[in-house]
Amino acid sequence: MTAPCFHADSSARVFGGVAEDYIEIHNWFDETKVAYGDFRHRAIRHHAFGIAECVKLFGDSLINSDGTKVAVRYIAEQHVIEDCGRIPSMNEWLETMQPKGWMARATPTFLKHGTREKQK
């Protein structure tokens, strides 16, 4: 799958209703493409934690245009499986990152008005 509209069409085939019933969920998964234009955008939401966040945002279920109650988790899982072949953990995405020095650099605590706490 390459675009939310195709995921939504797929959801309509699987769960009934029409693509418009599902497009917001699929748009949410793929809106990270604005930050990273290739498959790596999936590291942000295409995993088990992203699915849980989707349910938190959209609710446990929706009623499609056929009047059928559909679990949001199932729609989210379908999206991730169509793109990744399975549901990875967030850890699986993160462990492929190459650590850089700036990622672990600690900074002093900021106090009032942007001043920094003096190191003792």
Dominant shape: elongated
Mean pLDDT: 91
Taking Cα atoms only, what radius of gyration do you get, to the nearest Å?
19 Å
Structural class determined from secondary elements? mainly alpha
| DSSP summary: helix tally | 5
Order of helices and strands: HHHEEHH
Describe the structure.
There is one protein chain. The protein is mainly alpha-helical. It has one domain (4-97). The chain has helices at 4-15, 23-30, 48-58, 72-84, 90-94, and strands at 61-63, 69-71. A two-stranded antiparallel sheet has the order 1-2. It is elongated, with a radius of gyration of 19 Å.
Would you kindly provide a brief summary of this structure?
The chain has 120 residues and is mostly helical. 41% of the residues lie in helices and 5% in strands.
Q: What attributes characterize this protein structure?
A:
mainly alpha; elongated; 2 strands; 120 residues; single chain; two-stranded antiparallel sheet; 5 helices
